[in-house]
Amino acid sequence: MGFFRDRNWEARVEEALDRVENKLDRVLSSQQKQEELMPTLQDIAAAVTDIQGTEDSVIALLDQLHAELAAANANNDPAAVQAVLDQIAAQKAALAAAVAANS
What we know:
The protein has helices spanning 2-5, 9-74, 78-101. The protein is mostly helical. The protein has one domain (2-101). The termini are far apart.
């Protein structure tokens, strides 16, 4: 009963409601920002997966070139060694172009 005897009770209730409304607006805004960030995080995860696939491809290529170079060297075949070196140069240029295009 003491609360309602105060002449300013309506003003205090209105102020309290304003504070609640402001807090609710901040919560809703924060939730909206989180929802906007979620696709971005999904895009990042997809990009990481793509990068991993690219890294795996580069590693496979390097393994193949290493094996070819080792075989050519073991056979003491200068022409085969030069062919592998030419292939390495071509792959290096293609990789550099791909990296530059995606930077």
